[in-house]
């Protein structure tokens, strides 16, 4: 499958960072400089440098406990970094909250699915659309014309977004009652509804069967091509990572041990050692 | 293109409206025909007030998902603000005066809600519950030490001790721990019914709008709500203040249906009683709150024949009902019974 989509050549920007060649002329959507966080005496992430191009599909991989989800939590300000900076679209996120970072165009999904379980699929997407629906609480209670107009627009937009994953028929179902794979897809749709320029996917293929994973791979590309956004994903399924990611960053014990194209990473001895351990000498 | 079809939620909403209207019509008819006993007639306004209280607390507990143990505090603020307003406002028409008093009660309760909400809504769960509990006690202490009188120069207030020297013809309205006496009872069953309907409309419309979705998103998953950019504190405060305002209006309705009100009427026990209505009726289920509040308000009256054992029987009934409604085996039994009936019906056809 990866042959159908030729991988672009990667060039260094500005120093150790790499982004796809087509994005070089534009400001990177995300740039981390010397990002780090300590929990008490434990350094969870340290000296994390990374740039993501505006339309790049980037991968963040590493063994369990390497700090991948911590990086996502730093990017979305669930944790405030101890050191370093995160720039979203050239703007520093220092002192910003999760909510403000969301308004800056960063959307995410969660490793352990976090849907609004008691609400319907459509309502989940509409909550993602919240900041694009324009009417006041009073207008909503009084059911003024603006309410009906905006709700109709939101309804249509929600169905459009759900149709990416062919889920428009499930709009009325309760989100918590969906099968696992559909819940993961709904989380992606909800994140997309916020109109992000960077989409962070935390193990999107976890719990999916091979055919669902293959479909997800196509859909990740489709999302990038349709919305022209950058996607960064954490994933353990190497077929997915190697098939869909353009630039890959490997994390081990909170530090980056390798960066490059899927081919670079697969051939990198440090990565092989991190995953499989070192062959005993002699 | 998009055919407007009723979702499950709107069907439930319409059924709830219909239930309240039907109950009003039946009770109104029974009252007119003289079937209703005098005690029952006297209970109609309190029932409406408690139904309104249960609905408003269900907004906090069921829709926002935060436990509040001081809801009677807002009722108290509404009751005293409303009663003072009703006594002080020179509006000759009783219904209009009642409406104005309720508006005053709602406004003051909303202010109290904002005052408590701003500092404490950053807390979650148990911590918030304990702070609201303390708030209820504070309100009680404040009202017990508050003296309000009126004379030709207007309203006068005094705190801790009665230092008011009113002009001739002046009137003490609120007399500290003695509360308010000789209230002109202007609350009517119709006013109570209208208040309940208004609260229902506001809650249902709120829940069905962008605002309500944001509030329910906080309840279901705060972290996810933040991740899609929902301003948590704003919506929490909004739900809390709206619930407080509703409780305030309910408090006014209640107060203006009594001869005398004192601060001790709206204590911790009342807060818990209202919470019982909400839990029993089901969190987020408005029709459940209405039924639970109405039945549990009538129950102590209906149990008069047990005399001294009245509250004991009340407690036992409460435990049994709780067990019954939360027992999966029993629920399964009722569902299967229902299904069998349906199947029989289908077979009969």
What does this structure look like?
The complex is a heterodimer of chains A (282) and B (349). Chain A has 282 residues and is of the alpha/beta class. Chain A folds into two domains: 1-105 and 196-282, P-loop containing nucleotide triphosphate hydrolases (Rossmann fold); 119-193, no CATH class. Helix content of chain A is 35%, strand content 23%. Chain A contains ten helices and twelve strands. Chain A has helices spanning 68-75, 98-103, 121-128, 137-142, 145-163, 180-193, 210-227, 238-244, 262-267, 269-276, and strands at residues 10-12, 18-20, 30-39, 42-52, 57-61, 83-88, 91-92, 106-108, 198-202, 230-234, 247-252, 255-260. Chain A has a six-stranded mixed sheet with strand order 8-9-10-5-11-12, with helices on both faces. In chain A, strand 6 and strand 7 (91-92) form a beta hairpin. The longest helix of chain A is centred in the middle third of the chain and has 19 residues, at 145-163. Chain A is globular, with a radius of gyration of 20 Å. Chain B has 349 residues and is mostly helical. Chain B has helices at residues 8-33, 38-64, 71-88, 94-120, 125-144, 189-207, 210-220, 222-227, 232-255, 268-281, 286-302, 310-326, 328-348, and strands at 146-151, 154-159, 171-175. Chain B has a three-stranded antiparallel sheet with strand order 2-1-3. In chain B, helix 6 runs antiparallel to helix 9 and helix 10 packs across helix 11 (286-302). The mean pLDDT of chain B is 87. The A-B interface holds A 76, 78, 97-99, 102-103, 107-108, 110, 114-119, 123, 126-128, 130-131, 133, 135, 137, 140-143, 147, 150-152, 154-156, 172, 190-191, 193-194 and B 2, 7-8, 201-202, 205-206, 208-214, 216-217, 219-221, 223-232, 238, 284.
